[in-house]
Amino acid sequence: MVTTPQPTKVIYPDCDGNPMSDNTRQFRWIVVIKENLEILFDEDPNVFVAGDLLWYPIEGNNKLRQAPDVMVAVGRPKGDRGSYKQWEEGNIPPQVVFEILSPGNRLKEMAKKQQFYDRYGVEEYYVFDPDRLDFNGWIRTQAGSLEVIEQPENWTSPRLGIRFELQEEQFTIYRPDGERFLTPTELAKQAEQQRQEAEQQRQRAESAEARLRELEARLRELEGDRHPEG
């Protein structure tokens, strides 16, 4: 009896064995960009944001993969994933990816990443070097390939609506409403300030209501004095 060999199941690992970051500055920027994008698109159920998540573009090939420091997939639902398998995601590639450089990154490595993102459908690709304060970007043109952005130091992402500003001593990212991206510490302080302001407003409202009740009670007393029974 001849048996037909069963196809070998392809395993797609969730980890490539590489660290997420090499130093605190790089890690801080990854977190800032990822978390602020999560907040920006919090109310849109079909924008998926991830950090250091392996992306497999082709089914059956578990060697072909990249793990962008931050990626955004518009048109894909939020939710936890071990990896981004494109064929399970409506064949939608991440449209926007970010890479934050560390001193350990090499030119050859970054060139391979750019080729990968170009080949598999990324629309916007941004690279920031926090040590050298250097920011660059590429955008997919009508010709079909990623082309360098000539003036990235004051550039607004067509997909995300966020604006990048690079000055001599500072790199800043702004939300569409003009507010800048904040660090987790700044976000926590902002939330605490908003909580305190809300509490103060509540206390003022309660105090005003108490004064109003006192005034109404006093008016009733005066009415009673003017119109005694009998």
TrEMBL record:
<feature type="region of interest" description="Disordered">
    <location>
        <begin position="188"/>
        <end position="209"/>
    </location>
</feature>
<keyword id="KW-0255">Endonuclease</keyword>
<feature type="domain" description="Putative restriction endonuclease">
    <location>
        <begin position="40"/>
        <end position="157"/>
    </location>
</feature>
<dbReference type="InterPro" id="IPR008538">
    <property type="entry name" value="Uma2"/>
</dbReference>
<keyword id="KW-0378">Hydrolase</keyword>
<feature type="compositionally biased region" description="Basic and acidic residues">
    <location>
        <begin position="192"/>
        <end position="209"/>
    </location>
</feature>
<protein>
    <submittedName>
        <fullName>Uma2 family endonuclease</fullName>
    </submittedName>
</protein>
<dbReference type="Pfam" id="PF05685">
    <property type="entry name" value="Uma2"/>
</dbReference>
<keyword id="KW-0540">Nuclease</keyword>
<dbReference type="GO" id="GO:0004519">
    <property type="term" value="F:endonuclease activity"/>
</dbReference>
<dbReference type="InterPro" id="IPR012296">
    <property type="entry name" value="Nuclease_put_TT1808"/>
</dbReference>
<dbReference type="InterPro" id="IPR011335">
    <property type="entry name" value="Restrct_endonuc-II-like"/>
</dbReference>
